[in-house]
Amino acid sequence: MSAPASDGRSVQAVLDDPAAGDPAMSIPAAGDPAVGEPRIDDSATAAIEGRSPASLAWRRMRRDRVTMVSLGVVVLLVLLAVAAPFLKAFGVIDPSTPHPELVQGVGSLPTGAFSGASADHWLGVVPGVGQDVLARVLYGLTFDFTIAAAATVLTVLIGTTIGVIAGYSGNWIDGALSRFMDLVLAFPQLIMLIALSPIFLGQPPQNARVVVYLIIVLAVFGWPYLARIVRSEVLSLRDLEYIEAARSLGASKRHILWKELLPAVRGPVLVYATIILPVYISSEAALAYLGISLQPPFPTLGSVLNDALPYATSDTTYFLVPGIALVIVVLAFNLLGDGLGDALNPRSDRM
Amino acid sequence: MRLARGAVMCLAGGIVAVLALSACTGKSGKKDSAGGSGGDQARGGTLYLNTSRAYTHLDPQRNYFGDAIEFESRTLARTLTTFPAAEGAKSTEVVPDAATDTGTRSADAKTWTFTLKPDLKWQDGKPVTCADFKYGISRSFATDIITSGPLYALDYLNVPRDSADQAAYNGPYKKSGQAGFDKSIDCPSPNKIVFHLRHPVADFYQTLTMPAFAAVRQDKDNGAKYDSNVFSDGPYMIQGKWDPVRGGTLVRNPNWVATSDTVRKAYPDKIVVTFGETADTVYQKLESNSGTQKNAVTTTVAPPAAIPTVLSGPMQSRSASVTDGFINYLSVNVVKVPDKQIRQAIAMAVDRNAYVTAWGGSAAGAPTNSLISPLLKAYTKYDPFGVGDKGDPAKAKAVLQAAGVHIPYPITYQYSKDNTQDKAAINIKSELEAAGFKVTLDGLNPDTYYDVVANPKQTAELTWARWAADYPSGSAVIPPLMDGRINISADTLGNDQAAYNDPSANKAIDAALALTDDAAQQQAWTALDQRIVKEGVIIPMMADKSLYLYGSNVKGYLLNAAFGGFVDLAVVAVQ
Amino acid sequence: MLAYVVRRCAAIVVMLIAVSLLTYVLFFAIPRDPARLTCGKVCTPELISQNRQALGLDRSVAVQYGDFLKGLFVSRDFPDDAELKRTHPELITHCHAPCLGYSPSQQTTINNIMGRAAPVTLSLTVGALVLWLVVGVGLGVLSAVRRGRVLDKLLLGVSLIGYSFPTFFVGLILYDIVSVKYGLLPEPGYVSPGSDPGGWFTGMLAPWITLALAYTALYVRLTRAKMLDSMSGDYIRTARAKGLPGHRVVLKHGLRASLPPIITIAGLDIAGVLGATAITEQVFNLNGVGSTVIAAVKDADLPIIVVGVLIAATAVVVVNFVVDLLYAAIDPKVRYT
Fold first, then answer.
1. ipTM of this predicted complex?
2. Is residue C332 part of a domain?
């Protein structure tokens, strides 16, 4: 799915730099305070004390209930994902032990409604083998988060670095890097994930390889989107007065980079990272649907889904649970990303 | 034969036949069972055959998969004898096809004579002659190009041997040793064929049902590419391009003479074959029963996820099920696990009931302790270790401890990977770990699975396999699987994944093969089967059942047990 | 304008060459023997070396790439063996220019394979595009006009949820449950629009909805955002102050200002769409380019995979080019860069 285009604002930056690489567009860059109506920020005018942009953003976010709920869900999911291996080690959840006695229905369906839901198995058991679905979903979350988070971090590192260099350097460096970005962007991320798999993964693939493969390929074909956003941010900031002032005061390039530019791009990068993580999780699920995933006994959300899909009509609960779990994860991150974007770039006429 | 489906064992003869009949006859949903709605099948229409696994080799000498064999036998390649279109035990009563009868044998069963029917025609109108059969059979010897096929011809025909006791003939392309081969099959006239066998084969007329003994036109043979260009002498022929991976279309062979063929009715005008969809997809479409799916059949068994839907409500009336003769079993490699007690511990720990559950429950199969299918005469029910079907990990652990090895004892379990097998593997892992083993699961690519586990350098301590007898006898189970002499060489284990090559067992195999009394021979196989199981070399798990769904317009649907329990295309109609 | 077009054309050609070169390097200049990735289901040592020879994989990557480029203009033979051509001409496959390559596992030219597959993918992608633009933009406008009200909040909420469903999950629900179980959607499948336009339409409905769902959701929000942006511009307020009726203001001025960026984003989204298209084809068993590549990955048929990637990348470059031109046509300032 197209990563940056979750709403118009984060793509505006992309608009400044369409495939032609033409920077001189009439559409203003995101976050450009010169555009639109003046901000109506009562909290800032009421209390006349200096507040950092970050705390201002936080206050704005706090007022948005939906975003706060999604933040809560995301935090909870991350905690669960981190905790899952420990929960398993302490025997609280058990994703691998089979319970054949629980799946004696016709075709080895779980005996009992809702895929055999019971006090021991809140979300039922896996048909055929009787493993606990909730445990598998939780454990699967861990892998998905790990892979997606690592890929996101890598994407951010590469994308920010190149984006800043391109935006700040100008002239031929910028031109070359932008061309390079266009080149990489020509290769759709999901297609490359699928197409490169026979080369780098054996059949069936070993787990370590799959993890490394996913992280690297996701990042390699994902960084240009972020780099573009960063680049156009930097472009729009480069010529602003406070940068010129810093330069005329004798600030080194490195100082400007670290102290002025990077903090400025933090906002869009954070929003982007929040939005791209669920996309990476969805991509992992799509690959698992195609059979490219980790081997048992390691469940990932995608491979649990892959097993559940044929049971659409015969064990609908089992079919829906991992899918809905995936939707909840993606939804929570998307809502959070939305809210973050709103908080960082307030446009009160949008609310 | 391997993998999906194969010729099977419903037995003919005696009281046992009656028992076997009731075990064999599957439940066909139609009320007038045998032969389907007998009588109201009509010519015309298009039959759609949607199957998951492609019939990769339609080259008759390379065809070794049950469903592909059944498909080819019924449409493109006639053989001297064949199985009739019947259900249960009746399907194994061999009838003449290209020949006028089931052959005349010499007293020592080493010489077999057949007369070809008149009116046998290729798709270009030329007559099928003895020379065509001889040429077709000779192709089996070109093992460098004609790969993956059954090798009975190489063993049975009286072709001079070389120093390694292999046939000194390498096929009609290279022709070294051609004279020696030519002596083993005589064509005294174009419509008479005489086989000279190396040793007595009392059931040779059954072996001849395989497409490996079908005729091939020399001028139409293009070697390795023949899979895509089979030239037909059956009721249908390939239209346009046939893709071994995707399928193609068959249309009527205008030169096939219906009166020369007592078995094939050829009701549909056209057969459209599609490979490659997953089993779940094939069944999704059959369940929807819309459009062309009303005229559809499949040779893909219902996957576990589809079983509840297929067996529910109105859909059940267009479903059929049969014990198909395949045995799911585990092999313990005797080279990697030379200690008999360790092997026995593995055998005692596994739970067959859980295994059957993983595969889909009673609709998918029944637990078994024998490598020989319950449908065969040589089958007996017994409990080798006194642990029942459920297994006993505690007892197994005691045996393992008595063996004096370090616990947990590490083994790897290799199997052909798919979702169902993953589940079965998890059960095995948990049972074995309760018995003191440390199990690493290694699910392999299904397309190359048997090549990998047959490779002595890549095979593991415990490997999965599945086998059905090529014809209804223990002689088609024990020797092909357990005779180390024909299976094992420097770079392959053949079908003997356990690398079992026990000299006294081999002697017992030879003795059994030499027996001329059928009952005595089957008893000998029973004894060998029990011995191998008790030594922990083979761990039989499940005797398979097949459940199929078909479209609502399909008439005359029957599952032919002799071919492996697949839909018999000889009598199926869509109008 | 013409000068701009010419300049962009030149840029594209360079880009396409770079894309094809990068593809070749990615797939053929690897430590593993590429010939092992060509023989589909039955890889024997003989078959591997046979394929290596037939596809010219024993030559350097540079030569292979050169052959490929040459093949775009001059027809090729597989295997390219003059000796074999004389003795066994029936074993040679002839590939007419522009030759995309040869698949050893399916034993036919990739031109044939992709020629069969391209119309399916085109039907799916274009149809879905039309669907999501019409519905997405339409609902987005509605949402913007009814800003803050229940309908707006509902649309925003539903679209966010719709965006969060993975494509294959939506597809399977529509296929297994909606179409097969309850019969609410016609049976999906591809028939050529030439031979059966009605069947083509009904067969593509479920796939179109699947592919378009996430993007419709996106475009509702995008259109709404852009409309709100443009509706807050000064000239709109002037128009309103002048007393023009509300809907005319919206449609004429707001939409016209919003459409160019929306179309641009649609163009930029093409890369993501191609991935989702492949998944949709797989779910509905449509024989398009995407599912062909997926099947080739399962069979390890490298030549098909490479061509599939090339087609995808070329589509992205070409679509972006078209979008650039459209943008230049609308906004003259662009032409001078």
1. 0.87
2. no
